[in-house]
């Protein structure tokens, strides 16, 4: 009897332990660590709630157990080396391979069994989003919107007060003028009134008397008019600060600033070509094939997650990408980008010459002239701090004088192996020809001011 009671109690304890761990098939992982490992290794091809390059992984452990009667050992083998698992003749491994267009999953031999258990625990019981993320995301957007609305209302109130005050002042001035006019009429004698009515002034006689003053004023006005026209002509085509809206919103602050994407990853021809072209939509799809929604912490004031997600959908519409089937439909739409930087046809500018040959020289020169605004990428010397711009704008004048000033102050990198060899016989001659440069050779000394360099 006592023996039966002992076994009964042990059985109850075992059942309670089994029920307490029944939320997961294995319950041996750390979901928090699994989330970090998932983000580092899996998000390029997988998501929890939708199919991407690979299947959705939310609840994959229970799904495999229910549909295929496979346990976590199979998942361990698949994740570490799926090619070997397929080669062994595993039926389901080959079915998955065929189903996803024979796209081979990368092996992860570096992941330990515990790492994989952590990842699987995350796919089964993902932790709730941290409150801080909400505050940085939608919460921050709501706060920004409220602050903007409050500022707009305050500005409207101030404008109303100023307008009413101006109207009151104008009314007071008119009233004072009327009262002064009445006082003058009351104090004016009949003799003075008759004299004022009979007095007349000839404009012609007045001009003859002060003709030299009139001519001087006319000449001065003509000079000012000529200067105004000349100044207006000189600034035709200068659009510093120009930042048009684009058909698809693209924030350089998010891509180049927050995510540290190199400029030349998208603008590849800027380094080796004359023109820095606008990237094709295929370049965008290199990343956005797997990034169908915005999950970043940064939000531009006045914009929210829904706005960014909608802009990503515009990329899919332009390229004909169907995120549900992970395939191209062939139905594309052209994107009419608005050009921002546009040199005149009579100006020759080679990006490669500046980005490759002049990279270090331009960065060094800019940082010497702007110690409080140093740059680390040569692109910023002309285009400004693009990595801080939500909407790209023209950061400089891009006039002929602006270019010439740069050529006169930028030192040629004589430590460059090409320049050192090419200008070897010219060093002494250039130093004698430009003694004020104190031995420093600038771009203007090697032809940087020749007309034919930029005009043809």
From TrEMBL:
TM stretches of this protein: 160-178, 216-238
PROSITE patterns from the UniProt entry: CYTC
Residue intervals of the Cytochrome c domain: 29-127
Keywords linked to the UniProt accession: Heme, Iron, Membrane, Metal-binding, Signal, Transmembrane, Transmembrane helix
CDD domains, sorted: Cytochrom_C3
Signal sequence region: 1-27
Superkingdom of origin: Bacteria
A molecular-function term among this protein's GO annotations: electron transfer activity
Keyword flag Membrane: yes
Record's protein name: C-type cytochrome
């Amino acid at each position: 009897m006592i023996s039966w009671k002992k076994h009964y109690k042990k059985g109850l304890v075992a059942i309670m332990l089994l029920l307490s761990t029944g939320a997961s098939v294995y319950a041996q992982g750390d979901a928090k660590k699994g989330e970090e490992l998932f983000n580092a290794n899996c998000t390029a091809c997988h998501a929890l709630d939708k199919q991407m390059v690979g299947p959705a992984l939310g609840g994959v452990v229970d799904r495999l157990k229910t549909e295929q009667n496979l346990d976590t050992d199979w998942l361990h083998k698949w994740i570490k080396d799926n090619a070997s698992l397929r080669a062994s003749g595993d039926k389901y491994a080959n079915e998955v391979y065929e189903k996803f267009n024979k796209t081979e999953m990368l092996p992860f031999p570096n992941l330990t069994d515990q790492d994989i258990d952590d990842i699987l625990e995350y796919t089964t019981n993902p932790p709730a989003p941290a409150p801080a993320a909400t505050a940085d995301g939608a919460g921050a957007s709501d706060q920004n919107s409220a602050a903007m609305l409050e500022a707009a209302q305050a500005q409207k109130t101030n404008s109303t007060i100023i307008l009413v005050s101006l109207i009151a002042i104008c009314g007071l001035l008119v009233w004072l003028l009327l009262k002064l006019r009445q006082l003058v009429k009351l104090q004016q004698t009949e003799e003075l009134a008759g004299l004022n009515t009979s007095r007349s002034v000839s404009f012609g006689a007045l001009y003859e008397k002060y003709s030299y003053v009139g001519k001087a004023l006319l000449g001065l006005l003509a000079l000012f008019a000529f200067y105004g026209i000349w100044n207006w002509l000189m600034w035709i085509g200068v659009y510093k600060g120009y930042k048009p809206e684009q058909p698809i919103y693209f924030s350089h602050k998010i891509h180049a600033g927050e995510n540290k994407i190199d400029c030349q990853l998208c603008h590849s021809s800027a380094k080796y070509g004359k023109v820095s072209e606008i990237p094709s939509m295929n370049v965008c799809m290199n990343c956005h094939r797997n990034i169908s929604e915005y999950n970043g912490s940064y939000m531009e004031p006045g914009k929210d997650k829904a706005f960014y997600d909608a802009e990503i959908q515009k990329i899919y519409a332009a390229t004909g990408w169907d995120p549900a089937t992970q395939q191209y439909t062939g139905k594309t739409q052209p994107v009419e980008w608005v050009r921002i930087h546009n040199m005149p046809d009579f100006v020759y500018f080679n990006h490669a010459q500046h980005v490759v040959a002049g990279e270090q020289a331009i960065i060094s020169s800019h940082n010497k002239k702007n110690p409080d605004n140093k740059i680390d990428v040569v692109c910023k010397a002309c285009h400004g701090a693009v990595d801080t711009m939500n909407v790209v704008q023209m950061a400089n004048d891009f006039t002929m004088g602006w270019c010439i000033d740069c050529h006169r102050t930028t030192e040629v990198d004589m430590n460059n192996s090409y320049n050192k060899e090419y200008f070897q016989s010219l060093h002494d001659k250039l130093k004698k020809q430009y003694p004020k440069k104190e031995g420093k050779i600038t771009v203007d000394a090697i032809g940087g001011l020749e007309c034919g360099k930029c005009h043809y």
